[in-house]
Design a protein that fits this description.
Rossmann fold; globular; about 35% helix; 5-stranded antiparallel beta sheet; 13 strands
Length: about 375
Amino acid sequence: MAKKQSEGYLSAKESRRISKANRKITAQLEKRRGRKNVPESEYLTQMRDPQNAVEFDNLHTYFFTDAGTVKSVDGVSFEVPIGKTVGVVGESGCGKSVTSLSLMQLLQRPQGQIVEGAIRLNMGDKAYDVAKMPTERMQALRGNYVSMIFQEPMTSLNPVFRIGAQIDEVIQLHDEEGRSKAAIQARTIQLLQMVGIANSEGVYGMYPHELSGGMRQRVMIAMALACSPRVIIADEPTTALDVTIQAQILDLLRHLKDQIHSSIMLITHDLGVIAEMADYVVVMYAGRVVEKGTAQEIFENPAHPYTIGLMASKPVVGKKVDKLYSIPGKVPNPIDMPNYCYFKDRCEMCVNGCEGAYPPEVSLSPTHTVSCYRYESRKEESENEQ
């Protein structure tokens, strides 16, 4: 661990030492990732449950910075079942987007690297471990099997190309049928109609700045659906939109998911969106999953103090309060995480065991798990029963 000066700054010597060590680590990881003609057997794997589209298993994604190693995703495990929507919720910086970018292999490299764990992707007749796949093989998976709707459409669309040209390019890159230019244009216009754009032929020839926020978000959804992917990652798709457009986009996503029988990994801060859309909920805090279960279990019986705090902080229709609840304290420094429960310093429900190591996962039901010492007695009971 880097020694910090009393003012909280690293010395230049210490920063150079960290930087040199990091370059050595990332160079090795990059060399492995950049190999050509890697045999399929290296990243071929087996799904733990064939009914899952994606399985994250003990995923560790770190960023090797000059100030130290940021453990952005630190042992995350959850599943995305086929045809279901899994909502990933948590405050900014908890690792939601980095988890999804790890699946897409779109991390900011060479600093960002998957250092441990597996991401099993169900291809139908076989399964791939995305964490072990070389970069050249990912091109065939992005768009065809896994697609992402990014958070801010204006920064995701190229301002100097027309809408039609940008969607055409996606189809040309991933479509192995080798369609003609006219067939690709027809497919793009069909996609624009599918996402509820009435003047699809007119929008085909427009630039991104000529469209409203909701229209741009629909274009991003059309682009993500161009090749009918098995898994759609929606990274806060409604954050920049007003409430009425938000409802339309969510209805659209739900309808399209059923239409092409895809799974959705929905990343959001909005518990209302999660309640409306998700079949399963994963609650993340400081790079770890603190609670997961069905949407009904999480909303009716939140178990982790952090989940309880999130539920208490949302406004309720018909309930008048002077001030909304806010969770006290702040998130620990990701470069220097504590060796006990990451939420302990902010928790208002601590029990005797909380001063120990990070709490293990406890099953409250076959689908509901929580990492908290408040439920340690239940774990002991279930072990005694077995």
